[in-house]
């Protein structure tokens, strides 16, 4: 089963009219990948392009060309890709076969749920990370604290909680207080994360880039109990 991390991407480019025996080449390849238990395969049909003949082709309504390119893409471990290459080489008589390194960031809902369940066993020595920024700070057009939390999710951090301040002051010593029904914007926001030292070290360079003005504090903690009831229980 394909997992997060380093992998190989196999890309094959053929014409949709190319055949191997009585079947289109791309269908034969999909059958091979299925029988060899490749994690998954996608077939994309081009809408425009040209090949070695230099002739430009495009699809138009009611006039579909059989010369349009088809891309077959597979992502799996290096071992699995090596297993299918001899068959691919035999089937693809003309076209392009490419293998490149890739990094799987996210793959499969069921596998993620399993990994999430395993990570909920956090207990004992850990690190607490606190990030304090202003509520109205932005990162690439998005609210900064929301962008930080999304990045934590992508990096598989155990959990994060965001607290909005009701009053406070910063380096400029200007006291600010949230007024009733006021949206504020200049008050601080606290993002708290607890995870292993290894995982916290992974996100420090990310915060160094994203937090241009604010405070990042790291401290040792002892996790006595950390459990979740389900998807609805997200607070730390």
From TrEMBL:
<protein>
    <recommendedName>
        <fullName>DUF190 domain-containing protein</fullName>
    </recommendedName>
</protein>
<comment type="similarity">
    <text>Belongs to the UPF0166 family.</text>
</comment>
<dbReference type="InterPro" id="IPR011322">
    <property type="entry name" value="N-reg_PII-like_a/b"/>
</dbReference>
<dbReference type="InterPro" id="IPR015867">
    <property type="entry name" value="N-reg_PII/ATP_PRibTrfase_C"/>
</dbReference>
<dbReference type="Pfam" id="PF02641">
    <property type="entry name" value="DUF190"/>
</dbReference>
<dbReference type="InterPro" id="IPR003793">
    <property type="entry name" value="UPF0166"/>
</dbReference>
């Amino acid at each position: 089963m394909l997992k997060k991390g380093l992998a190989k991407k196999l890309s094959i480019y053929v014409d949709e009219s190319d055949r191997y025996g009585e079947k289109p080449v791309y269908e034969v390849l999909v059958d091979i990948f299925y029988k060899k238990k490749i994690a998954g395969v996608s077939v994309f049909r081009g809408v425009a392009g040209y090949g070695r003949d230099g002739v430009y082709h495009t699809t138009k309504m009611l006039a579909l060309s059989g010369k349009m390119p088809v891309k077959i893409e597979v992502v799996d471990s290096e071992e699995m890709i090596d297993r299918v290459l001899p068959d691919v080489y035999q089937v693809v008589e003309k076209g392009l076969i490419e293998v490149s390194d890739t990094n799987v960031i996210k793959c499969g809902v069921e596998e993620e749920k399993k990994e999430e369940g395993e990570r909920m066993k956090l207990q004992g020595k850990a690190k607490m990370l606190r990030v304090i920024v202003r509520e109205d700070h932005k990162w690439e057009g998005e609210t900064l604290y929301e962008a930080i939390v999304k990045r934590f999710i992508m990096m598989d951090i155990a959990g994060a909680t965001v607290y909005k301040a009701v009053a406070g002051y910063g380096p400029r010593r200007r006291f600010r207080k949230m007024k009733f029904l006021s949206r504020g914007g200049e008050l601080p926001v606290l993002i708290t994360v607890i995870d292993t030292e290894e995982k916290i070290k992974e996100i420090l360079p990310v915060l160094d880039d994203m937090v241009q003005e604010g405070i990042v504090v790291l401290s040792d903690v002892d996790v006595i109990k950390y459990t979740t009831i389900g998807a609805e229980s997200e607070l730390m």
